[in-house]
Amino acid sequence: MRTKTRNTRTAVAATAVLGLLALSGCGAAETGKSNDAGDKKTVKLTVPSWVGAQANTAVAAYLLEKELGYTVKTQQMGEVLAWDALSKGDIDGILEDWGHPKEEKQYVDTKKTVVKGGDLGVTGHIGWFVPKYFADKHPDVTDWKNLNKYADEFKTAESGDKGEILEGSPDYVTNDDAIIKNLKLNLKTNYSGSEASQITAMKKYAKAKKPFLTYWWTPQWLNAEIDMVEVKLPAYKEGCDADPKKVACAYPNTPLQKFFNADFAKNGGKAAEFLKNFTWTTEQQNEVALMIADEKLSPEAAAEKWVKANESTWKTWMPKK
Amino acid sequence: MTAAVTTPPKEKPAQQAVPGPGRLASAVRHRAGRKLLPLAVAAFVLVPLGVVLWGGGSWPAALTVDVSGPLDDANEWVIDNRESHPLFLYFLLHLSNTATDAVDAVYNGLDALGWVGFAVLAVLFAWRAAGFDRRGAKTAGTAAVVFAVCGLLGMWDATLLTLALMVVAVAAASVLGIALGLAAGLSDRFHRMLRPVLDTMQVMPAFAYLLPFVLVFGTGTPAALFCTVIYAAPPMARLTALGLRGADAGVLEASASLGASGRQRLWTARLPLARKEMLLGLNQTIMMALSMVVIAALVGAGGLGEEVYSALSTVDVGKALAAGIPIVLIAVWLDRTTAAAGERIGTSVPGGSRLLHGWRAWALVAVVTAAAAAANRALLAPTWPEGWTYDISTPVNKAQDWITEHLASGIPVLGGTEVWSENFTLWVLNPLRDGLVWLPWWALLLIVAGLAWLVGTWATALTSTLALGAIGVLGVWTKSLDTLSQVIAALFVTLLLGFALGVAAARAGRFERWMRPVLDAMQTMPQFVYLIPVVALFGVTRASAIIAAVVYALPAVVRITTQGIREVDPAALEAARSLGAGSRQQLLQVQLPLARPALQLAVNQGVVLVLAVVVVGGLVGGGALGYDVVKGLSRGEMGVGMTAGAAIVCLGLVLDRLTQPGAGRSRRRHEG
């Protein structure tokens, strides 16, 4: 008898709670928080995990705030997450994208919530690299056909009886397992899992002047610290990387792209115009990246220093009045 | 994964009745024969059948199911429908908007106090929670030092943002945990149903479910908050249920005989009696929530986690440490405060001014804080003065360079860390992994079934075999064995070091006091902070992944071992001493055998904790499942990430069942 009344009571209580929830939730929620905080206009940019892209965001944010009077909110997140946030309007722009065909198709072509924002001006290139001190000693290592000859030099405990090629963060696209298999190289990939681990390992090898082979890319601030030489893989041809299992060619040169939220691109006013105009060279980006990574300046301080010295460059990005 | 939670520094090992070593051995021998016979018969029939049907060697491809397709479809559906479907408009979006608003409100509130006001609040809160007396003053002193250091390191604003997220997350996790714990404490059936759910919530790596949460709730605060709540709620639920179930039957009987109804008994007897467990649950929930700070930053939640994470991109250990120290200190502050509050429960209230007790004391805290905040407004800048910061990153980086340069290689006789890591990989990890991979799939299933049956019941054997089978079905057999070999090696190293340090700490009180802050730091320091030094010392290898796991799992093992040995019946020790046993004999023949249940619990907790950092291992060269989970998140491939996450949960299930403390008969008694 008692349990029965208790059950009824629980049921009544549960219904009441659910009812309250339903009542409080009966209005439809806002799908995106409003773009304007107070009377000042706000621009939201993503801060990717690598330093080159942090340099873009820092300089753009500095100019938006100091020259155009915007408030800039920066948010750090992974690349694919940033694409999703861009589509929802949680952020307004991605300033450096290395190519996300799947997301581009989904958000730009199908949903039309994201629009292309043009070239950043920097060209990215992925490839296989060896340190210069090793290439100087063995000049023929820079051709993939001779790599098997040097496999022994790249051996580590992880790669067993094969040579090791150091891989980076899972953020970056790699075809290396397929390339090794299809070119019949006596190599084995070792996934370091994060850019920080990869850089630490490379710095350590370089200090001891040990030979190593790594998946690497330019522009990268570390290239100013460690001289790297690229190993030539079979030349890239349009479509040779179409089937991920059959790749046997080098990586393409990627002109890095900007992408904006569709709404922002249309109604973003001066900020949108400025960001569309924003374009600089690999050297200029590297200059700021080095201040951040090597001199350990904060991104804001680095941006300020660069802006003060390069007025003629950024003047051209300013929206026409 | 048992009733004990994942970070058990404060928890007593479950005291279970375990038969003496001699009787146990003979019983096992006897029972082992009886148990293994039917298994052998079953294997005799099933194995040839399986081999004929699907072949030996690695897991048969015919028996795998690809789950990434449906998962990726679900992913697409969410993206296409989240702005129009009623489920989102009328429910989920309300949740995420509320989450953002709540965290914003708390942050603005803390910020409005100004730095002086907030520091005063933190100190008085700690003092009040620990009782306004001299012992409480020590806790209050800790709070003062903690926030002074946070400010000095230049992390004031980041600390406030992290605290705001933590306040909301811990509040939500506690409400959820208490609700689940109440239900589980009152209903046996619900209790049984809840256990595997809580296990999964704790062992499933947060990296694996971060992506779906971001898709559904959006980047930034909401996703970070909900993931933190999921990870942090289980200890509260477990300990609330434990407290309710453990209430003294005599008190309940007395309360019933006085005519109290069921609800009255719950409010006046059972809940007050469970207060101590619930406070311990709160303590654990806070610790778990703090361990998610950096992961929250991966989806844009900001705060201290973002500082750690962005320091990684420039390989700046010093900057990462400057952001990691406040996380450790916040953990210490809240741990000491809740622990001191827990100790007060049940003690009689000493005399003194009435102003310092009950609600009046809380009102006093509020008034003084308001006064301090007002003074701050009137006289000083609202944020921590910039001149009062000290940059530790340059000296720390220099120290790190020096250490790695001198310890990595070239030490006479010892060789150096690099040499150790190479030999460990060559002679321990490689044979272990190759051996596991070499074993035919049915042999591995059989071994696990046999071991599980020996330590537990047929149900244990069935669960662990099915869990191992599920890994094969998910299609990640080889990768999982790679991870398994790393987990076993890490567990071995952890136990070896942990038992040695634990015994030393139990026998030398000074050593224990000296170790305590070190263990605290090892447990709460975000692993991302020490990734770079670990790689610098040990290289990009699986050995580095193992070091990271050992650092994280060691404190719990040391603590449980120390406590287990300490709690050995003093009479037994006295007896041994009077029989002329030396200190070594006492340890080996009395203390260690009697501390057996605690040691078993240490093994079990070691397994759970090592598994919890498999993903971190993936960031320093561990590869296998950990790398896949990270890849799933960073490339937006939900199928890859979730599959690897599920495989980690299955591995956890297998290893947990194999190491269940006092499994088998005594466990059945324990669960009643």
Task: Tell me about this structure.
Chain B: Pfam families: BPD_transp_1. The complex is a heterodimer of chains A (321) and B (672). Helix content of chain A is 42%, strand content 21%. By secondary structure, chain A is an alpha/beta fold. In chain A, strands 4, 5, 6, 7, 8, 9 and 10 form a seven-stranded mixed β-sheet that branches. Chain A is globular and about 65 Å long. In chain A, 42% of the residues are buried. With 672 residues, chain B is an all-alpha fold. Chain B folds into three domains: 1-33 and 409-438 and 488-622, MetI-like (MetI-like fold), CATH 1.10.3720.10; 73-246 and 261-347, MetI-like (MetI-like fold), CATH 1.10.3720.10; 439-475 and 635-663, no CATH class. In chain B, 79% of the residues lie in helices and 0% in strands. Chain B contains 31 helices and no strands. Chain B has helices at 21-54, 68-81, 86-112, 114-129, 134-152, 156-186, 188-203, 206-217, 221-245, 249-257, 262-273, 275-290, 293-298, 304-313, 317-344, 358-379, 393-407, 417-438, 441-455, 458-473, 477-507, 509-524, 527-538, 542-566, 570-578, 583-594, 596-612, 614-618, 624-634, 638-658, 665-671. In chain B, α9 packs antiparallel against α12. The radius of gyration of chain B is 26 Å and the shape is globular. At the A-B interface, α1, α3, α4 and α8 of A face α2, α3, α8, α14 and α17 of B.
CATH superfamily of the largest domain in chain B: MetI-like
Number of strands of chain A: 10
Tell me the Rg of chain A in angstroms: 25 Å
By CATH, the superfamily of the largest domain in chain A comes out as Periplasmic binding protein-like II
Instruction: Using a beta-carbon cutoff below 8 angstroms, give the protein chain pair with the largest interface and the number of residues from each chain.
Output: A-B, 61 and 70 residues
Provide the domain count of chain B: 3
Integer average pLDDT of chain A = 85
Indicate the overall shape of chain B: globular
Which stretches of chain A of 5+ consecutive residues score pLDDT under 50? 33-39
| Percentage beta strand of chain B | under 5%
What is the level 1 CATH name of the largest domain in chain A?
Answer: Alpha Beta
Helix coverage percent of chain B = over 70%
